[in-house]
Amino acid sequence: MQGTDILLIIIGLAILALACVCLAVLLSIRRKVSEDQSLKSIQYIQSSFTSLGDLLTGSQRQSSDIQDKRLQELNLQLTQKNDMLQKTVNDALGQIEVRLKNNAMENEQKLEQIRGTMEKRITAMQEENSKKLEEMRATVDEKLQKTLEDRISKSFQLVSERLEQVYKGLGEMQNLASGVGDLKKVLSNVKTRGILGEIQLGAILEQMLSSEQYEENIATKKGSSERVEFAIKLPGDEDGVVYLPIDAKFPADTYTKLVDAYESGNSDEVDQAAKMLERSIKAFAKSIHDKYIEPPQTTDFGIMFLPFEGLYAEVVRRGMVEVLQRDYKINIAGPTTMAALLNSLQMGFKTLAIQKHSSEVWNILGAVKTEFDKFGDVLSATQQRINQANAELDKLIGTRTRKIQSKLRNVVSLSEASSRDILGIGTAGEDETLEIELSEEE
To answer: Where are the domains positioned within the chain?
Structure first.
């Protein structure tokens, strides 16, 4: 391509140079020669231009042919090189694919060999560990079974003997406690826990008073079949008894409506429910007064027990305490106030009991003092035996247990059921039953 351009440039320059020469010749001919000679010169120049044009045309054709030939050769070379390059790339890709397949197969074979080797080694290690563990288990079972049976049987036998001695000492304490039972009832102070309704009231009375100090389901009016739930025995004239009626009442539906009205925030519903509650409480108070109060067999007042502090507070807040006391001779008590009331009555009972049985109390205290001196000696002996048993148990549990645990540190633990089957120990339920029996005996 570059050679053809240079050739065309050279031809153009030659034509320009020839034209300049022709012009110079024409100018010289006009000056020096005649017209005939000028005509000949012009004809000669024209023929020269014609020859020059033919020469240029031939040169152009020759240059075009050379250019076409070179382009065809170049295109052929490019096609050949492209084919060679495509073939080379295809060959290289084929070789790479073959190498990748070979590498994958080699890697799979190596991994399979490694996997097989690892499985064989792990299997061998497991078998070896199983054999060693089985040997250790057999050795430990053989030695431990015998040692544990001997030591545990001896230890339990010793503990049983010591506990039997302790139980004998505690039996003497029971005999001493039975001698001061009446004094304990006078001097005891029991805490209360509230429950609902009659059960709650009965539990409070049972905890605060002795069974001789109140009656259940008793008719307080002569000739009446109405029975009050509870009546406290109060001292009357000439060692007689005056009953204080106590009845549990709980207007559940009415109180529930009042609580719902408070939660809804509707003042009309609150007022309506409160009026219903007042009517229910007054009806209960009238029923208690008419059915159970009849002086002098009873006190001139009764007690209405309300099982909820919230219900009791609502009745107090609405000023019904004074109304019930004035109109029906009924006092209101909640769980807390009932406990306080019974506590005050209990203090009165204690004072009366002390006044009536002061000499008996002093005799009992003298007997208690004598027995307590004996009890101190028995308790000291029992304490020595317990300390001796504790020392032997500490020795057994401390030193021996650490030695056994150090030997068993590398032994795999079995399940609880398997351990009990192998050692012949009872089930977990039997152990719990034994623990309950021991705790009851203590």
So the answer is: 2-91, 181-356
Q: What is the mean pLDDT of residues 74-90?
A: 86
Residue with the two structure tokens 């002795």: 210
Query: What's the token pair of residue 273?
Result: 């429910």
Contacts 24+ apart (CB under 8 A), 226-231: 226/291, 226/292, 228/288, 228/291, 228/292, 229/198, 229/201, 229/202, 230/201, 230/202, 230/205, 231/292, 231/298
What percent of the chain is modeled with pLDDT above 70? 65
Spell out the residues 6+ positions from residue 126 whose beta carbon is closer than 8 angstroms to its own.
none
- Going through 71-219 in order, the beta strands assigned E by DSSP cover 214-218
Residues 368-385: what's their mean pLDDT? 71
Which of these, 382, 246, 355, lies nearest to 301 by C-alpha position? 246
Q: What does the DSSP assignment read for 213-235?
A: GEEEEE--STT----EEEEEEEE
**How far, in whole angstroms, is CA 133 from its chain's centroid?**
37
What band does 182 get if pLDDT is binned at 50, 70 and 90? very low
Euclidean distance between the first and the last CA atom of the chain, given in angstroms as a whole number: 124
Closest C-alpha among 216, 248, 219 to residue 232: 216
- Bridge partners (DSSP) of residue 303 are 246, 331
Mean model confidence pLDDT for the chain: 75
pTM of the model: 0.38
pLDDT of residue 188: 41
**Which amino acid is present at 30?**
R
DSSP 379-413: HHHHHHHHHHHHHHHHHIIIIIHHHHHHHTTTSPP
* pLDDT tens digits along 91-123: 888 888 888 888 888 888 888 888 888 888 888
Tokens of 242: 């005056």
Q: Which of 221, 405, 214 is nearest to 296 (CA)?
A: 221
| Cis ω before 307 (30° cut-off from 0) | no
d(CA 327, CA 319): 13
